[in-house]
Structure formats: structure tokens, C-alpha cells
Amino acid sequence: MGASAETTAFLKECLADALIQLLETKPLEKITIPEIASLAGVGRTTYFRNFSSKEEMLVYKIITLWERWAEAHHVIIKRRYTTDNALTFFEFNYSIKPLLELLYQRNLQSALFSTFYSYMMPPQGAEPMDCYKSSFYSYGLFGLLDEWIMRGFAESPEQMARLGTMI
Description:
The chain has 167 residues and is mainly α. It has helices at residues 5-23, 33-40, 44-50, 54-72, 86-95, 97-105, 109-120, 128-150, 157-166.
């Protein structure tokens, strides 16, 4: 009998949380699947059933955090960047500042970009122009966020939103 979607989501998040906890003390390449599973309190097969890589767990966690944050803040447009939701975008990322700093400390910026790209891309078979626009915003937003993180979040989310709407 298969696990419910709710149970699966819980177990996936437990694995992602365990990975993040382990990242606080050692680099990704030194973390093993058995370590992650043990810390999460699940079997190794739970990892292999749900993820194909450790980076995929990080992407899952960031998307889960965004979905929760967006729901709590009544965000209507969640899968696309617009000038109307620029502040929301930067406020969310500021709210997960410790996680983003950890990813950068461990040279895992690619997980953040993968999150943007997978979340913002239109479904397969979409119109080419929609795909180009989504790619443009994914790369552009990642560039702004990347620079903001590397500068230690020096500007406020409000300043970044203004910057993001001017460019």
C-alpha cells in the first residue's frame, strides 16, 4: 500500500531538513545518503523513492518554504515574476536568509538556480515565447538574488524590489 501524498511530503521534508542540518557541519560531497536517512528517521529507500540527488532535496525544501510563505501571505501569482510581486519575492528570500547563506557557504548556488528554473518554467509543450520569457526572468532574478546574497543582503527587500522593477 502506497503512502499518502501528505505522508510522502512529510518524509521528503524530513530528508531535506536532515540534509540541511548536516550541511551546517560538512560539505555536500561528504554527506552520505545513509547519514541523511538516519538523521531523518527513515530508511534509505525513502530517499531513493523520492529523490534522485541531494540537490533535488534542497530544491524541494526551497519550493516547500515558498509555497507555505506564499499561502501565508496570500500571494496569488506564485510561479511568475512580475513588477507587482517583486517585493514579495525579495521578502520571501530575506525570510530564508540563513538557508541561503548556508547554501552559498557550501557553494550550492546551483540548487537555488535549479529551484528558480524548475518552478518558473512553463509546462512542457508551452508556447516558445512563454518559455523564453520564463528563462529570461529565471536568469535575471537569480542574478539579482545572487548579487544580493553575495553582498550580505546589504539592501532591504524594498530596495531590491525597486531595483528589480527598474531593470
